């Protein structure tokens, strides 16, 4: 049967299976497995039945596991599934879970062509074995399906449209109004990088300074400082610009947090526990996160620092879970503090949160100048980071690895959602019940409330998104109905929030003119890759973002409209370029790009258009080169002769490592967070992540181009790109990108 493109939203309900016989036969292999299970103490016991929704080899939904109803499992679970797949059938697979894998019971098929008219299908579907014959007992599964094509969506390619836009639907956190947002380009902006970017209303863009603001927020907190991080390093300093010194700015982060805790501020930290690090052996982990050092540093102090392992619910077996227990991480990077009111005329306090891609650790401090050599005697002398060459060290000299990143500060009701996320995580993995009871401080800390008047043209509407599951966050909805309303989905053992992926898809589908992305990785939609030499199910990078982007471009080509996607990524993932892991990621990124360009080229040919596909989709890598100046830092040692390290030192050039996780749509909507564009970050059951999506209701791309803070921020990023780093093409900074 021919495959048909399903691009839209599929609403599915799996009700139940009747007359199910899940017994697994009595062959020799099954008996061996049973004996092993009994011996190692995790015997199979009663059947554990679950069902999945598949579009060919891409799994797009899964029910929870049921143990008490082996003959008539009743799930009554609903799914809101974004799809961009070529498929012949929607496949419902029924399996029996066990510790070393899962046993296939059977599959039921609903032809895709029956869904295209948008009518609801509600039926019992026969379950078949691998030979397409009815399974024992002629069991059937009761399902309901309805498909909504993107072309029938009244919001398709319409943008935000108005201030009445309610945000991304089916999410755990609702959109909040009356907020203030600060956008950060890198950890620091020096005084001599102030691009003059005009905004609407006769204003000019004014950049903010991330680590200065974080320092001030921590220093001025009186009641709480909550931090989560992939890595938190106690020895860094946040203030390093000699022209912008602050009182106490030379204190390390660790000493600052201990000082605040000794003053009575509740300082709580959730730091990812890298299980490859071994404190007793003084061995740093594979990721060099300093987790053991950080925990030991705060032992015996008033700071509560907890190392949190990530136990992902990726649907694997017990044995598979053991294999991947060291692979996935807690990747959220947030700071939550109490702060004074903007007016400063009251003793009342409010909640302020920071969300984005910058960890409070070594190697992150940088500016848009991204120096390779010139700061080795100053800002980076005690913070030299260069993991791409074996044996690199400050004593051997640069180039250091320049670090480009993006972060945000949230003020207003949405800041409380970030606080709630921290509370959920602390209650699940924090151990001691030391969270502040804010109800006892309601006479001091004001409840969630707008910080900007509705008629203020600088107001923001903001929504929080996450990738996280019930294994890492407390108090998820208990019933399947409540979970579905919150956009949560079932995993093997936990309920999963993957609203970051949903937010990206939602924004891409509404895009009108262009999309600008910066991300550390760009790989996914492997169901659309050339599968002649790979197995889609082995790769597992099923998230939709690359395919959604290419299908958006295709739709614009078919409509005869201009549209371009610009994507900035690092030249290679951090690490030794020749290593197997780096090469594998580069290969997957190549396959992703190949899939997207193939979609675009076929669309151009179908319209008889002869044009470079890079006019519709372009990838950029940033680099820097510095001429040597007198008085520059002189290392006492030299790299190994003939090494890549020595060659880079002689050439005085190196890539700028893009660690940002951001998307801008039409200069009116922005997503900033910790999530990479890969399966780890977008899955929900792998790395834990957090992001915000935001827009200014008075600065929308309606009758004229948006000229609010998002536009100014993008232009600042572009100016940094092509003024300081000539690798970055100037096309990104032309307003004609938008106006063509």
Automatic annotation (TrEMBL):
Pfam families: C2 (PF00168), PLDc (PF00614). GO terms for molecular function: calcium ion binding; phospholipase D activity. SUPFAM superfamilies: C2 domain (Calcium/lipid-binding domain, CaLB), Phospholipase D/nuclease. It catalyses: a 1,2-diacyl-sn-glycero-3-phosphocholine + H2O = a 1,2-diacyl-sn-glycero-3-phosphate + choline + H(+). It is an enzyme of class 3 (hydrolase). Its cofactor is Ca(2+). InterPro entries: C2_dom, C2_domain_sf, PLipase_D/transphosphatidylase, PLipase_D_fam, PLipase_D_pln. Residues 326-364, 654-681 form the PLD phosphodiesterase domain. Residues 1-125 form the C2 domain. GO terms for cellular component: plasma membrane. SMART domains: C2, PLDc. Hydrolyzes glycerol-phospholipids at the terminal phosphodiesteric bond. Belongs to the phospholipase D family. C2-PLD subfamily. This is Phospholipase D. The lineage of its organism: Eukaryota, Viridiplantae, Streptophyta, Embryophyta, Tracheophyta.
């Amino acid at each position: 049967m021919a495959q048909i493109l399903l691009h839209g939203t599929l609403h599915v309900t799996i009700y139940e299976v009747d007359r199910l016989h899940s017994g697994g036969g009595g062959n020799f292999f099954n008996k061996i497995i049973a004996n092993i299970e009994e011996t190692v103490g995790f015997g199979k016991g009663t059947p554990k039945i679950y069902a999945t929704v598949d579009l060919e080899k891409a799994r797009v939904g899964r029910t929870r596991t049921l143990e008490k109803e082996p003959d008539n499992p009743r799930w009554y679970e609903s799914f809101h599934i974004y799809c961009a797949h070529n498929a012949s059938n929607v496949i419902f697979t029924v399996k029996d879970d066990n510790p070393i894998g899962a046993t296939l019971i059977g599959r039921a098929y609903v032809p895709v062509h029956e869904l295209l008219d948008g009518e609801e299908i509600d039926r019992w579907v026969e379950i078949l074995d691998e030979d397409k014959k009815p399974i024992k007992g002629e069991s059937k599964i009761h399902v309901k399906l309805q498909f909504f094509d993107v072309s029938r969506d009244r919001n398709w390619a319409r943008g935000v449209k108005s201030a009445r836009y309610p945000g991304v639907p089916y999410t755990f956190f609702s959109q909040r109004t009356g907020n203030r947002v600060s956008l950060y380009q890198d950890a620091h902006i020096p005084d001599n990088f102030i691009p003059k970017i005009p905004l609407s209303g006769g204003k000019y863009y004014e950049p903010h300074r991330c680590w200065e603001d974080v320092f001030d927020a921590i220093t001025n907190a009186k009641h709480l400082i909550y931090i989560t991080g992939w890595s938190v390093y106690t020895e860094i300093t946040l203030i390093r610009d000699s022209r912008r010194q602050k009182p106490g700015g030379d204190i390390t982060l660790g000493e600052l947090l201990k000082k605040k805790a000794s003053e009575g501020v509740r300082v709580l930290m959730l730091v990812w526990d890298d299980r490859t690090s071994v404190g007793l052996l003084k061995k740093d982990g594979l990721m060099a996160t300093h987790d053991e050092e950080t925990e030991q540093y705060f032992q015996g102090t008033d700071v509560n620092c907890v190392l949190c392992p990530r136990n992902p619910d990726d649907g694997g077996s017990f044995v598979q879970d053991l294999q991947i227990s060291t692979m996935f991480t807690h990747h959220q990077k947030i700071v939550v503090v109490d702060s004074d009111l903007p007016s400063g005329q009251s003793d009342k306090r409010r909640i302020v949160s920071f969300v984005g891609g910058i960890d409070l650790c070594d190697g992150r401090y940088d500016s848009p100048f991204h120096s390779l050599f010139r700061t080795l005697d100053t800002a980076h002398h005690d913070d030299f980071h260069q993991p791409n060459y074996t044996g690199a060290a400050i004593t051997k000299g640069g180039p250091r690895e320049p670090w480009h990143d993006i972060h945000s500060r949230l003020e207003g009701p949405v800041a409380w959602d970030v606080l709630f996320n921290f509370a959920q995580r602390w209650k699940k993995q924090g151990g001691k019940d030391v969270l502040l009871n804010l109800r006892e401080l309601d006479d001091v800390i004001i409840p969630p409330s707008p910080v900007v008047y509705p008629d203020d043209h600088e107001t923001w509407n903001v929504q929080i998104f996450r990738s996280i599951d019930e294994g890492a966050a407390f108090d998820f909805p208990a019933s399947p109905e409540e979970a579905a309303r919150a956009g949560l989905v079932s995993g093997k053992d936990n309920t999963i929030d993957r609203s970051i992926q949903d937010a990206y898809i939602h924004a891409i589908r509404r895009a009108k003119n262009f999309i600008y992305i910066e991300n550390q990785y760009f790989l996914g939609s492997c169901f659309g890759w050339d599968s002649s030499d790979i197995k889609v199910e082995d790769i597992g990078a099923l998230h939709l973002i690359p395919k959604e982007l290419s299908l958006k471009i295709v739709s614009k080509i078919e409509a005869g409209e201009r549209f371009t996607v610009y994507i900035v990524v690092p030249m290679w993932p951090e690490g030794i370029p020749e290593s197997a892991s780096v090469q594998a990621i580069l290969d997957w990124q190549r396959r992703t790009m190949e899939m997207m360009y193939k979609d675009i080229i076929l669309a151009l040919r179908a319209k008889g258009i002869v044009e470079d596909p890079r006019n519709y989709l372009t990838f950029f890598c940033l680099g820097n080169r510095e001429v040597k100046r007198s008085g520059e830092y002189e290392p006492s040692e030299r790299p190994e002769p003939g090494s890549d390290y020595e060659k880079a030192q002689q050439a005085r050039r190196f890539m700028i490592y893009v660690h940002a996780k951001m998307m801008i749509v039409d200069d009116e909507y922005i997503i900033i967070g910790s999530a990479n564009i890969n399966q780890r970050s977008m899955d929900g059951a792998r790395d834990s992540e957090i992001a915000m999506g935001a827009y200014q209701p008075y600065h929308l791309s309606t009758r004229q181009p948006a000229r609010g803070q998002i536009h100014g921020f993008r232009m600042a990023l572009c100016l940094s790109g092509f003024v300081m780093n000539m690798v970055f093409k100037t096309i990104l900074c032309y307003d004609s990108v938008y106006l063509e």
